[in-house]
Amino acid sequence: MINLYMDDYRPCPGGFALARDGEECLMMLRDCEVNILSLDHELGFGQMDGTDVVKAMIHEGLYAKEIYLHTSSMYGKKRMYELLYQAKPADVIVHNGPMPAELLEQIARSAGRSE
């Protein structure tokens, strides 16, 4: 089981696999069981954005156990949250914002112990 961080620009937090674009994120969701997924919205000119990724996730039934939205785009965050919240299975937790610093630190620490 992996934690997955989708962002075209920001550095990847410790304990996460990185997807730099929407296609890579979807491929990893198809191929791996994902515990925590953190999504950006703006992924570069001419690329899928976070809303496109969420729509594909819903269409294909690709969900992580827990989903965070770390984007700085207020419109993107609102749109992704609304889509995910309406479509998610009951056991999936969707957060309307980024992961708390304490959780990021805990994941990085536990990843360091398992390497």
And the CATH topology?
Rossmann fold
- In this structure, how is the largest beta sheet organized? 5 strands, parallel
Structural class: alpha/beta
Which strand order does the major sheet show? 2-1-3-4-5
Order of helices and strands: EEHEHEHEH
Spatial shape: globular
Protein name: Cell division protein FtsJ
Organism: Paenibacillus bovis
Domain Cyclic-phosphate processing Receiver: 2-85
InterPro entries: cREC_REC (IPR046909)
Would you write up a description of this structure?
This protein has 115 residues and is an alpha/beta fold. The protein has a single domain (2-114), classed as Rossmann fold (3-Layer(aba) Sandwich), CATH 3.40.50.2300. It has 4 helices and 5 strands, in the order E-E-H-E-H-E-H-E-H. The radius of gyration is 13 Å and the shape is globular.
Question: How are the SSEs ordered, and which strands pair?
Answer:
Elements (H helix, E strand, L loop, with lengths): L1 E5 L10 E3 L2 H10 L2 E6 L10 H11 L5 E4 L4 H14 L5 E2 L6 H14 L1
Parallel strand pairs: 1-2, 1-3, 3-4, 4-5
Helix pairs in contact: 1-2, 2-3
Observed structural traits:
single chain, 115 residues, alpha/beta, Rossmann fold, 4 helices, cell cycle, Cell division protein FtsJ, cREC_REC
Short structural summary:
The longest helix has 14 residues, at 74-87. The chain contains four helices and five strands, in the order ββαβαβαβα. It is of the alpha/beta class and 115 residues long.
